[in-house]
Amino acid sequence: MKLFDGLETIVKTDVPLAQYTWLNIGGPAKYFVQPRTVDELRLAVQRCRENDVRMYVLGGGANLLVDDAGVDGAVIRLRQGTFLDVAHSEAGVRAGAGADMGRLVLRCVRDGLSGLECLTGIPGTVGGCVKMNAGGVFGDIGSIVESVEVMNDMGEVFTRSREDLAFAYRSTNISSRFILGAEFRLGEDDPQRILKQVKQIWIYKKNTQPLGGHNAGCIFKNPRGLSAGALIDRAGLKGKRVGGAYVSDKHANFILVDEGARASDMLKLINLIRETVYKKSEVYLELEIEVW
Ligand SMILES: Cc1cc2nc3c(=O)[nH]c(=O)nc-3n(C[C@H](O)[C@H](O)[C@H](O)COP(=O)(O)OP(=O)(O)OC[C@H]3O[C@@H](n4cnc5c(N)ncnc54)[C@H](O)[C@@H]3O)c2cc1C
Question: Which CATH number applies to 228-291?
């Protein structure tokens, strides 16, 4: 592994990625890099840059479809060491990119810090949720981000404060490749009251989304003023199946996969949905999930 000489403890080769995604499908990463510190990350990034190795950043894999052929590049996963740190801050809480969002929400409830509960039931990491501006009817994460620490491909680290950041529907203006961590502006509140809100959101999710079974949340973005789920439902596609992938009966913007399903099943079903919805409603659905 000449390319990563000296970094053997944090780099593996040909690592199957399925186990790192919520869909549980997809082929291997040529290089799988798990740095524990910013310096290790910088070194790995430098080697990739010098050797023209394409880089991919993996969070919790809750919004990803990895192709059956896998990824010809370095998948960099920030879920060790300092990337997991969580601490109180002046604004509320500061968390490393790899911190688990579900656990962070519960920790804030316990500490009487309100704001992050709008992320209840949204799986992933702090880095992935900020990158995607994760959220929904209860609010988006972007509205409570105070600052974000990022690293670019040159290994330079910057802090970008709220004034520099713009969040839109499932997107941000963060252009640096790596989000290292974020600080959230939270208010103080009674833990019992925040917990009540968390429970209400869970009940809403349970009633409206398929729980259990492998999936990646909503597959398509909602077109402006429209619901992707309603368009798919109207096209008669609930329950539609290709191989091991099928459209949820409960929420048509969710695709569920059986054990042993292939990424190609998902991709064929996605194309079929797009074509059918376009024929029926003349709307072209844009993907919310990322395909590697
Ligand atoms: C059951 C279920 C329900 C869901 N419900 C919702 C919902 O209600 N609302 C919603 O918005 N989403 C929802 N999602 C999608 C998913 O939870 C979010 O998109 C979440 O933000 C993904 O975070 P992640 O850490 O898993 O990111 P990943 O899936 O690993 O990556 C997503 C993107 O973020 C990038 N990324 C990840 N970490 C970093 C980092 N540290 N630095 C830079 N880029 C990074 C990746 O490169 C990729 O482009 C749901 C998913 C599931 C499985």
Answer: 3.90.78.10
